[in-house]
Amino acid sequence: MSNLDHFDAGIVGAGVIGLAVACKLVLHPRFQNGSAVILERHRTFGEETSSRNSEVIHAGIYYPRDSLKARLCVEGRQQLYDWCRRHDIPYRQTGKLIIAGKGQEHELEIIRRRALDNGVADLSLLSGTELSALEPELEASAALYSPSSGIIDSHAYMQSLLYSAENHGAIFSPLTEVKRVTRQGGRYLVETLCQDESYLFTCDMLVNCSGIAAQTVAGLVDGFPAAAIPAQELVKGSYFTLRGKSPFSHLVYPVPEAGLKGLGIHVTLDMSGQARFGPDTEPVEAINYQVNPGKAAKFRSAIARYFPGIAQRTLLPGYSGIRPKLAVDSGVADFVIQAGGPLGFPHLVQLFGIESPGLTASLAIADEVIRLLDC
Questions:
Q1: Which residue, 173, 175, 335, 364, has fewest beta-carbon neighbours within 10 Å?
Q2: 297 sits in which H/E element
Q3: Closest alpha carbon to 144 in 131, 159, 133
Q4: Are 174 and 153 in contact (CB under 8 A)?
């Protein structure tokens, strides 16, 4: 083992969470002059969930009180806006409208109260007339307006995180897949396949931020209790793009689905102003990013409830993403940021079920990981 490369920290996964963790770690005062390596099985960073989402900066409205999702979304949102301003990352604080149809108005008050519980106090209730003045193409009886919601160029954000991490000594290792992790002599021995060649190294701290592969990576840690790895369900979300100019200048969301299984087919905007609708929720057994054009009719039906003008517009298949949700029967609907110390694996932190609002919460999630690492 003496001839092996050694790093103070190994980070598995170069999605937005892994990059945020790496960046925050190498900038941490107690980690000065420390060494870190970021392992990524793909050719570059952010090729899975991090680049296949709505790119929305969430306010922190919907999540259960005292949940990690609620706390880290609110903390992370402000950090994210600050990061964008400091690093010239393209973003727009578009604001978001949560709209209610006839008979749904009471749902808006429930949402507003939950938002207040989470520390989101800037929501305002709009009448149908006020809503029409903001978005004439919408058909709804009332809305909640969230001024702190927005959109971000997620690729530029991830690029800035990687640049900052590398600029402070982190090493990025793409095309590197973890094969086994063992605990040896107070360190972790990590066996990988790096660009088709075996590569072993040791590290003092290890963070599993591998998203949809997090459960698989956890299972590669010798002796780690299987019962401590929460079961995962893969949920596919597809998007359709609206051809031509967007009729909307805000993000538009219907009242969420029961149990927050999804936020409904909503309108988001990219940085060029293009409107897209989605995502839907489709449980899947395997990774497949193709968008089924046959879903267009179902999308149209959902969209027509609040945007009748969809009948005269063209919807085009866009893209899809896979959400690493925790299994319903696991009883956990929150993020799981798990410290390995109580399980006999000190300085190991594993993240499971990091779906929305993971992008918004990324910098706050990184803070939580570093706290658990006790570096």
A1: 175
A2: helix 296-304
A3: 131
A4: no
3-state secondary structure 224-248: CCHHHCCCEEEEEEEEEEECCCCCC
β-pair partners for 283: 235
The gap from C-alpha 6 to its chain's centroid, in whole angstroms, comes to: 30
Name residue, tokens 């982190």: 170
> Per-residue pLDDT tens for 121-171?
999 999 999 999 999 999 999 999 999 999 999 999 999 999 999 999 999
For the domain spanning 5-51+155-230+332-373, the CATH number is 3.50.50.60
Same fold, 5-51+155-230+332-373 and 93-148+232-328: no
Place of tokens 């978005």: 135
* Residues contacting 155, CB < 8 A, separation 6+: 46, 51
Decide: residue 159, CB within 10 A, 0-12 exposed, 13-18 middle, 19+ buried.
middle
10 Å CB burial of residue 258 (0-12, 13-18, 19+) is exposed
Which burial class, exposed, middle or buried, applies to 336 when counting CB atoms under 10 A from its CB (0-12, 13-18, 19+)?
middle
Residue 1 has what pLDDT?
45
